[in-house]
Amino acid sequence: MTTATPVLLQLLPLPFPEAQQRLAQRFDLIELWKEQDPDAVIAARQNEIVAVVTSAMTPTSAKLIDKLPNLRAICSHGVGYDAIDVKHAQKKGIQVSNTPDVLNDCVADLALGLLLATARRLGQAERYVRSNLWSTDAKFPLGVKVSHKKIGIVGLGRIGMAIAQRAKGFDMEIRYHNRRQRTDVGLTYEPSLVELAAWADFLVIATVGGPDTRHLVNDDVIKALGRDGILINISRGTVVDETAMVNALVSGELGGAGLDVYESEPTVPDALKTLDNVVIVPHIASATSETRKAMADLVAANAEAFAKTGNVITPIPPL
Ligand code: 8YV
To answer: For the chain, which residues make up each domain, given as ranges?
Structure first.
């Protein structure tokens, strides 16, 4: 790298001051969220910018990338990259890093948390006690057992494997569906997603988002999971045909759902808010202080490594 202080375009603040400070110490920062006229600032400094900091939920388009002729690295806060045009960046020789592994535990914990909350009606039970219903009729409905039940994992990657590890703790029978069978895991592979759903008591979505998996969980899969089945989604809302899911929940053709992600966040279909067999939370799978700090630190480390060596530490593999 040249001796001049490299210029970094930061689309959003890192949620931890230490990590933000590390960027400020190493780069000439353009903190775009502070700018009155962001487009004018980008136009004025477009030739100087060599790196961008963004996040899994911040659109980082080919249009923005093409405005920056000397861009060499994009460092993203988050493991998912469906909001970033990674293919376009990589085609232009631009590295894109994400924050894998540091969030596996918390995302998998929330997947099991949603599964338990939905199966045991924790959200409904909470509302029941808070609205003083317990003292009046004491007829709270039964939940369904989790231990020793069948769990189907859609997308057996790092997070999927962490979910499988936790499911073993509940003595659950585990099968998975992926684009390809994995040869390095001793779990049962199901080539047909519909067959996996038909077999499973709980279907957990842990696959990547983006056009390749859009509506992978369609009406056929949802109907196969069925009246006693429970759908859990901690990946991306677009992976599930949300309209089909809502219709099946309302009609009773799907037993229940525990959701952290939605097709048009932060919009959540109103119908879901009225259903007792649904647990809905606001995209918080990685939202713990420990994990978000680790994610912010990894973004700073990727940017620092790029400034020092020209290479990020956790690049997204070529797509
Ligand atoms: C987000 C996530 O990163 O990592 C992901 O892909 O969806 C989350 O951890 C977070 O919500 C904001 O950046």
So the answer is: 7-101+290-309, 104-280
User: pLDDT digits over 191-204, tens only?
Assistant: 999 999 999 999 99
Q: Has domain 7-101+290-309 been given CATH number 3.40.50.2300?
A: no
160 lines ligand 1 (CB under 6 A): no
Grouping H, G, I as helix, E, B as strand and the rest as coil, residue 91 is helix
Q: Is 224 in the pocket of ligand 1 (CB under 6 A)?
A: no
Supply the pLDDT for residue 3: 62
128 in Cβ contact with 140 (< 8 Å): yes
Domain pair 7-101+290-309 / 104-280, same fold: yes
- On the question of pLDDT at 2 being above 70, the answer is no
Share of the chain above pLDDT 70, in %: 98
CATH class of 104-280: alpha beta
Question: What's the rounded Cα separation, in Å, for the pair 77 and 116?
Answer: 28
57 lines ligand 1 (CB under 6 A): yes
The gap from C-alpha 248 to its chain's centroid, in whole angstroms, comes to 24
* Active centre residues (catalytic): 236, 265, 283
